[in-house]
Amino acid sequence: MKSHIDVSMIVRLQVPTELDLKHDRSQDEQPTPGAGLLVAIAERFAVPADFEFSMENRQFITVSTANEIVDRFIRAQFDARSDRAELRDEVAADRLFLMHPAGTSADPSWDVWPVADPTGPEVRISSERLNRAGDEIEALEYSDEGMEVFHEAVWSTPLRGNKANHLLTRARRRFYTPTFIPYSGEASPFEPLHAFTVQGAIDLGIDVLPVTDDPNADTIDYLGEIVIRAASIARTWEDTDTSARGDSIRDALSSGWGLETARSHIEHKSRSRSGGEDSSEDFDEIAVLTGLVDRLAGEVSLELEVWATAAIEQMMIDAPTPVLQLTPAVTRFSNPAAQWLFRRGGGGRLVSFENLSRAERIWAGAAVDDALYWHRREHTSRPGDELRPVVMILDEPESALHRSAEAHTARALVDRARDPRRIIVAATHSPELLDAREARIIEVKRGGGTNGASVVRELNLADKAALGELGLTPSDLLRWPRIFLLVEGAHDEALLDAFFGDRLRAARVLILPLRGATKLPGTIDSRVLFDFTGAHLVALVDNQDPQQLSVAWAQALENRASGTLETATAGLADAVLGDADEARFLREWLTSALRTGVENRVTPYSLKAKDVIEYVPVGSLLDTHASWDVLRAEHAAALAARKGAPKDFKKWLEVTYKVAITPDLLREAARCVDRVPHELERLMKTLEAIAHQ
After folding, report:
1. Of 445, 439, 507, 498, whose CA–CA distance to 473 is shortest?
2. How far is the CA of 69 from the CAs of 9, 17, 73, in angstroms?
């Protein structure tokens, strides 16, 4: 977490674990994994009595003391302003802080503010009271009376309302947090809340897998670190007994020497030896050390090859095989000390990283980064690190891959993410990834929110279920449809596509067959189509008067803008005629749109015919010369005779005329039509007009 990326984050300080407390007084240079942030923040509020001294007279705070300091700090903020113990206890239990990066990778630091979760019941009550006071002062036009009420409200709690939640960084930048509520029991509620500072690299209990364009340089750096550390602790430098020299990879990586200290130690010893009298002994020791370095580098390179090969073969179809070549000593001054080469297709020739295809370079680089990370982790893990998470960040992992390779890579990423230690964050448009059952989908849209703010919104399980009910997948939302045309079933979809397929696609109209009118109200109640698209919803029904429905909806919109929900819905019952399910659900759909405030994004549209199949000639579907009106009359007579005739008209046709009316049959029938029916042409022009608004 030493990044230049200017992204703030909300962190929760966990209560110390048994492992944290077990090693509480170990006086290690780094706190136990996961406790580093707790200690770093606690040090900011500690008093001299909180510190202890190590044997080297170094000040430190134990994890248990840090836990008490943070709890003390949070409770003090609320004790200073509020007598509501329930609010104080709720916020103290959450222990949330907003952290904003303020330093650099070389000198990391953070601006930090304490914040509260607005979904907590006690926080919600207090914040609603603050926001009401802010609304009242505006209604009273900032009169003396209004200001008095507002002052009383804001000074009664350390929480900042939405009129005063501005934060101020050390760089004098102002911003506000719309999702979490900052608080302070000391600062004036009418001034921006200043940050406090946390300095230095902090172990947040999570790793971020580095991504680089130069795997060779990273590998050379890693090998160099190992051999320098190994050489610095090797007993060869101290005596001629080489039987116990430090040749363990773990010993090398876990050495207490800093890298620069180890390098300086080697140079110092080398200079002192070379100035001695017994040069033959010095040469023997240098030869032994050289052998140690070469052997250790060889062992590590073989292990890295295994890790990298496993990673790239999992991610790619027909992946090239990585080979890590160490440069012989005689050519080490004219070539890199180590280089990754890649062999295509079994016994093919070796090619350099630069000569791979774009897709191969992406995943070869990721495989090497993965190998370096997990190799180091295997040899340096400490108690408590077993499930330490690592984040892998990918930008469009589907890029440069053909469809079958994209599907393979998506499945591999999903498989990797099942490892509880791995967290994969991918910016993607890949249907294979977005539609994966395990995927957690978050929409990020720059400038798409209130006052130009960016939108960061999760597509939760309820949203996914709602899409599934509509026959949609998350990736369907990426088609950026301008209109969702809601139709009753597959027959409507087939006929409209046959008549207007190209025009529908040009207008970016996506037909959604609901397969039953019962699902129509749910398209509004779930809100998923409104929240994650800017599309307009058009509900196509039949057996209604189009003109009457259009006039009634226009009147409802006018009444909603100037009156109550009741006045807006009053005329819909008279306009949407009939007791059939379709009519009832259409009334519910329109009422839901008015109730939820999305009425300007929905349009009802009706066809006069009782069923969409009546817009093709009878003879194109059935072996008869009768008209649709005659067939309707025959069906009515059959029902009146009470001889078990199917109530559904299309099923009666299929039974009577021994034909299955399928979507494919309707498409064939549409090809027999010389001129598109006027009513359907009017529907298409209406859709095109809405799409171009």
Report:
1. 439
2. 22, 16, 6
Say which range, 153-157, 219-223, 328-332, has the weakest mean pLDDT: 328-332
How many CB atoms are located within 10 Å of the residue 378 CB?
A: 13
Beta strands 207-208 and 321-326, pairing class: unpaired
Give residue 247's pLDDT.
42
Note the pLDDT of residue 238: 46
Distance separating alpha carbons of residues 108 and 40, to the nearest angstrom:
13
Joined tokens for residue 435 = 């539609």
What tens digit of pLDDT does each residue of 21-72 get?
766 655 444 545 557 888 889 988 888 888 886 656 667 888 889 999 999 9
Cα separation, 631 vs 651, whole angstroms:
13
Q: What's the CATH number for 207-379?
A: 1.20.1050
- Angle among Cα 378, 380, 381 to the nearest 5 degrees reads 75
Spatial neighbors of 138 by CB under 8 A, at least 6 apart, are none
* CA count, 13 A, side-chain hemisphere, 683: 30
Q: In a 3-state reduction of DSSP, which class is residue 138?
A: helix
Q: Please name the amino acid found at residue 391.
A: V
Query: pLDDT value at position 233?
Result: 61
User: For the CA atoms of 272, 278, 284, 290, what is the dihedral angle to 10 degrees?
Assistant: 20
Q: What distance in Å separates the CA atoms of residue 423 and residue 121, rounded to the nearest whole number?
A: 31
3-state secondary structure of 341: strand
Among 185, 184, 172, which residue's Cα sits nearest to residue 113? Answer: 184
Helix boundaries (H) for 162-239:
215-233
Ramachandran region, residue 556 (left: φ > 0; alpha: ψ -120 to 50; beta: rest): alpha
Token pair for 597: 């405030």
β-partners of residue 441 are 459
230, 246 in Cβ contact below 8 A? yes
Q: How confident is the model at residue 637 (pLDDT cuts 50, 70, 90)?
A: very high
Among 207-211, 217-221, 321-325, 669-673, the range scoring the smallest mean pLDDT is 207-211
By DSSP bridging, strand 483-487 and strand 509-513 are: parallel
Query: Residue 126 carries which side chain, given as an amino acid letter?
Result: S
pLDDT at 332: 65
Nearest-angstrom CA–CA distance, 372 and 389: 16
Residue 52: what residue type? E
Q: How far is CA 449 from CA 9, 230, 631, in A?
A: 19, 55, 54
Six token digits for residue 466: 């709602």
Rg (CA), the chain: 35
Positive or negative, the CA dihedral 309, 310, 316, 318 is positive
Could you give the CA distance from residue 228 to residue 260 in angstroms, rounded to a whole number?
9
158: nearest Cα among 113, 119, 121, 215: 113
Distance between CA atoms of 326 and 332, rounded to whole angstroms? 9
Higher pLDDT, 466 or 4: 466
Distance CA 368, CA 312 (A): 9
Where are the chain's structural domains?
A: 9-199, 207-379, 389-439, 459-609, 613-691
Question: What pTM, to 2 d.p., does this model score?
Answer: 0.72
Q: What pairing do the DSSP bridges indicate for beta strands 193-194 and 166-168?
A: parallel
